[in-house]
Design goal:
5-stranded parallel sheet, binds alpha-D-glucopyranose, single chain, 30% helix
């Protein structure tokens, strides 16, 4: 991770540092405006998060410029006693100035290469502004769409999340995070934060160790193996232990078992929140508990810098624990190359922001992240003379960004309406109106209407949970107006969570789930609607029929009375089918793909996929596996492989997957990874309800 010379330098610095200077390195100050130059000079600040508040995700934030960062850095280098550089962090969750689709949308692409490219762009734009540490990727498995932060996740599946975790870490850190175009990543929120009860942010969660090991932890382990530079502890409490005080999680598992060498940073004020959790008497106690448990950096509380020196002097905290934390912080700074190159190039930023190549890359990702859920022949738009373009988000700009886009510039956005009008063939008249009743009266004279509905940015993300996952108020009524007029409707849905689209599924001719597609999202949506791009996105989360089914996810357990979720007589609910509205992994194309010839030879499983449609398209071929009998009950199926294949009309391709220990094992009774002998079932297909299957035995 860092050179021997750097390690030596760290040990040397440790011998020179006072307790106060050590505590200073463990302290992260919020907001550039609040950082006192005197604190930097006295070594009381180790790092700065460039965020004006704990809710940076949904507030417009002033852009941080390299000049501001260099000013404070100069004080640290030239005026502090040991000249240890600061490191500046920011929540660059899905892009800096060139805003990519929200992570939930990126996950729909099932394309690690496109996700990695978007992360590379985010890294070099942020680094140009002097940000060398980003609090990304968010790796929380999220099964509850009431939770606003599903938007930031890669969805409900551990395998897909792990694949994208690796891609994002590689994209952000490159082959060397010390290079000026790279940054250090920080996976979060360690761990299990997506399990907050009732989808209520910051709530407690109950996760068995079996589920923790097999569902919530694997993506973080993959990120660590990919060279992750840092990790952030979660707010939530599991089994009475807040993650920020969880010694087993942070020291025994992460640092000892997994061998993680970087620092653990607490989430915003999570050290201070140990008091509210009722496990710390006061700030000094919280500092002692947090640092002892393995939290190396205190974000925004100020408890470490205030209390650690006294705690050590009073014998309540061993200095070796403090030294280990300081070592990790200094490693992070060496990893970011800050001892050799502490300053950002203030002239660089304006030359690298929002480059055409960056726009194209996130546009390609956006195109692949859009999921076609339903299409009764209306798409791609062809042969219409008069096309209505209506809906509350048809002319939206910033709303396309989604949550956590501190540095996006709304003026960069081409709205769905503008993009669609530009993309429509000659002779098609676009009819628009900013209000509902006029839209309906105008729609009577349209051949079809595109209605852009869904969530605005401020309704998703941190601290934005809902009890009703239906469309926001009024939108369903609006759509029912077109239904009453028998106007064919293409519903384009924007959102940061799995929404309840059950009425649309029954009543609307075409449904496109575009999530919050980023700065190029309007253009990507227009490309899809006009057929310039054939949709290929797949759902990274299950879409339930109603919030009453939540949590609903595909990798469920068989139980003692297995469900036949689509059969009325077998359903458990007396008022709903048990099946999802749309399953994990589902997404349509303008083509159609047929699967055949599944073969298992040794540990290789293969099948043929054929494009039986009349347009070229890309299909995400998915592999699912079930361990039929094991020491512990295993899910009815789990995603263990996927491959995006491009096929011309009539073209067929044989896709192969290896069934190694990684695909067949699980964390068993002794919490170690085991592949147990017995029969396995495998499926290959275009979603998690694939039927083409085979069985094989592991001896
Ligand atoms: C927030 C979020 C976390 C973010 C941090 C800094 O509360 O939970 O994801 O990185 O604070 O903004």
């Amino acid at each position: 991770m860092i050179s021997a010379a750097a390690s030596e330098r760290i040990e040397q610095l440790l011998t020179q540092m006072t307790l106060e200077e050590k505590a200073g390195q463990l302290s992260q100050s919020p907001n550039m405006a609040e950082v006192k130059e005197s604190d930097v000079e006295s070594g009381r600040v180790g790092s700065v998060i460039c965020a004006a508040s704990a809710f940076a995700g949904n507030e417009r934030q002033a852009r941080v410029r390299a000049g501001q960062i260099n000013h404070l850095q100069k004080i640290a280098i030239e005026k502090s006693r040991l000249g240890i550089p600061l490191i500046f962090a920011r929540d660059v969750i899905h892009g800096h100035r060139t805003v990519a689709p929200i992570p939930l949308g990126q996950a729909s692409s099932f394309s690690p290469s496109h996700v990695q490219k978007a992360a590379e762009i985010a890294a070099f734009e942020a680094a140009a502004d002097g940000i060398r540490w980003v609090f990304t990727p968010m790796l929380d498995i999220s099964r509850d769409p009431r939770w606003g932060r599903m938007a930031e996740s890669y969805g409900e599946d551990p395998f897909l999340t792990a694949e994208l975790a690796e891609a994002t870490v590689h994209g952000l850190q490159g082959d060397d995070p010390a290079k000026p175009e790279n940054v250090v990543a920080c996976a979060k929120h360690f761990a299990g934060y997506g399990a907050v009860e009732a989808g209520r942010d910051y709530n407690a969660g109950e996760i068995t160790r079996y589920t923790f090991r097999n569902i919530y932890l694997p993506p973080f382990h993959r990120a660590v193996k990919a060279g992750l530079g840092s990790i952030m502890s979660a707010f939530l409490e599991i089994g009475g232990v807040p993650a920020t005080a969880n010694r087993w999680l942070l020291r025994e598992l992460l640092k000892e078992d997994w061998g993680f060498q970087g620092p653990v940073i607490a989430d915003w004020d999570a050290v201070g929140e140990l008091i509210c959790h009722g496990i710390a008497e006061g700030a000094a106690d919280a500092a002692r508990i947090g640092l002892s448990a393995g939290v190396d950096i205190d974000m925004a509380t100020g408890a470490y810098v205030e209390h650690v020196p006294t705690l050590v002097r009073e014998g309540k905290l061993s200095e070796s624990v403090v030294d280990d934390a300081v070592r990790r912080v200094l490693r992070l700074k060496f990893m970011a190359g800050l001892f050799d190159r502490p300053y950002a190039d203030a002239e660089l930023a304006d030359r690298v922001m929002f480059l055409p190549a960056s726009q194209n890359a996130v546009r390609e990702l956006a195109e692949r992240s859009i999921v076609l859920l339903k299409n009764e022949g209306l798409l791609p738009l062809r042969g219409h003379k008069k096309l209505g373009i209506f809906g509350p988000l048809a002319h939206a700009k910033a709303e396309l960004f989604g949550t956590w886009t501190l540095d996006g510039v709304a003026e960069d956005v081409v709205t769905v309406a503008e993009a669609l009008k530009k993309a429509l063939p000659e002779g098609v008249e676009a009819v628009e109106s900013p209000n509902v009743d006029e839209s309906l009266s105008l729609s009577r004279f349209c051949d079809a209407v595109v209605v852009v509905v869904g969530e605005a940015t401020g309704r998703s993300g941190e601290n934005n949970d809902v009890v009703d996952i239906g469309l926001p108020p009024g939108q369903l009524e609006f759509l029912k107006g077109f239904k009453a007029l028998k106007v064919p409707v293409v519903a384009v849905v924007l959102g940061g969570r799995a929404l309840d689209l059950s009425w649309l599924q029954e009543n609307v001719e075409a449904i496109v789930m575009a999530w919050h597609p980023g700065v190029m999202g309007g253009l990507a949506i227009a490309d899809i609607l006009t057929g310039k791009v054939n949709p290929s996105g797949k759902l990274p989360v299950t879409l339930p029929r109603s919030v009453g089914q939540v949590p609903l996810y595909y990798n469920r357990k068989a139980t003692g009375r297995p469900l036949n979720p689509n059969e009325r007589g077998m359903t458990r609910y007396v008022d709903s089918l048990d099946s999802p509205l749309y399953p994990f992994g589902y997404g349509l194309s303008y083509s159609r793909f047929e699967y055949s010839g599944l073969r298992i030879e040794g540990r290789t499983v293969s099948a043929t996929v054929k494009n039986v449609g009349d347009s070229a398209g890309e299909e995400v071929v998915q592999l699912y596996v079930r361990d039929e009998v094991a020491s512990l009950s295993r899910p009815v199926r789990e995603l263990k492989g996927f491959e995006r294949v491009s096929l011309a009309p009539g073209e067929a391709s044989t896709v192969k997957f290896e069934l190694g220990d990684d695909q067949l094992g699980y964390y068993g009774p002794s919490e170690t990874w085991v592949v147990e002998p017995g029969w396995f079932t495998v499926w290959i297909g275009g979603d998690s309800e694939a039927t083409l299957s085979g069985r094989f035995q592991v001896s």
